[in-house]
Specification:
Elements (H helix, E strand, L loop, with lengths): L3 E4 L1 H9 L6 H10 L4 E4 L1 H11 L8 H14 L1 E2 L16 H9 L6 E3 L12 E2 L1 H10 L1
Parallel strand pairs: 1-2, 1-4, 2-3, 4-5
Length: about 140
């Protein structure tokens, strides 16, 4: 079964900061790199990834960031958002992620985030651990 996901930026940051190879965020990012799950993204999402990953406070090396972004281009699926969502979210910066999710629900897509409270309570908006449970049981 193919799984399609939209990754909130905090999942990627958490994976890159983690020292634990078994953490849910690391497992998910590895699955994207291994093309086991399909990452859905828009140009706005990729722009946010790049901007956040380049913040000095994280200390990520440029080659690591470039490799990640090239891997997203290689294995991810670029979606051009066509329908603007009128959902009210606590953080307007999360709207691009939610719009791509809603647009791709026909693929049974999931939004994986560490901040589920920033999105409507839906069974397809999950934490990294919840997503791993879904794919392992399913």
């Amino acid at each position: 079964m193919n799984y399609y996901v939209v990754l909130d930026t905090n999942v990627i940051v958490s994976a890159l900061l983690s020292k634990n190879e078994d953490s849910a965020t690391v497992q998910i990012l590895n699955a994207v790199f291994e093309n086991k799950i399909k990452l859905l993204f828009s140009l706005n999402i990729k722009k946010e990834y790049k901007e956040v990953l380049n913040r000095d406070k994280f200390g990520f090396q440029k080659p690591t960031i470039n490799y990640l972004l090239k891997t997203i281009d290689k294995y991810g699926i670029l979606i051009d958002p066509v329908n603007k969502c009128d959902e009210s979210l606590p953080d307007i910066n999360d709207l691009p992620f939610y719009e791509i999710l809603i647009q791709t629900r026909k693929y049974n897509s999931y939004l994986i985030t560490g901040n589920t409270k920033h999105f409507p309570k839906k069974p397809f908006i999950v934490t990294p651990r919840e997503f791993l449970n879904i794919i392992n049981n399913g």
